[in-house]
Amino acid sequence: MVLATTGLQDTVLADPDWTSLGIVTAIVGAFLIANATLLEHPRRLVARYFGGRPGRLMSVREYVYNRVQTTLGFAFLLLGFGMQLYGHIASRPAGEVPLNMGWVGLIVISAVLLLFAAWWWSLLAFRRYVREYFEEQPGGLDRQGPLVREVGELFGVESLEDDTVETYARRVREKAGLPVRGASAASLLRPTPPPEDDPLEERA
Fold this sequence. Notes:
This protein is mainly α and 204 residues long. It has 9 helices and no strands. Helix 3 (42-49) crosses helix 5 and helix 6 (145-154) runs parallel beside helix 7 (165-176). The longest helix is centred in the middle third of the chain and has 36 residues, at 101-136. The termini are far apart. 10% of the residues are buried.
């Protein structure tokens, strides 16, 4: 048994190609992350938060499993990239600079710019998904005050001191481009004209 293990180490596990192993490990990590995050559409996440569908206890277990799977995926991904970097540095001739710090700085700056761009895109996309949800569920915005406040913060609607839930919800609907419940936005903004006298009642 010892001889067989020694032979395996000498043949299969001897002198590993760290760059290739890093690529394989990164592929495994990317697959785990994609499998945990891309299977559920953001519209379902919005509907789940607002209570559009009754939840199940098993969905909590699935959520925990997805978090564990995402963590494992990132661990494999970072480990794989570390193996590739180590393999690259180990294969360089002695005395040669393994990394060009100028390119490293350019990559970091690009990552920061893309991160800001992704933040703006996620805000616009999330607003669109919330707007679509309340277009399908027109009465969901008027259920409770805290929900209206959160949606107002999402669309940048400030709260005034004399605001009620109804007036604030109306301003949120106008800012988000949602139909006003029970009346059009134009009719709510116009003053109601006084009722005209009925000529039949005057004759009587």
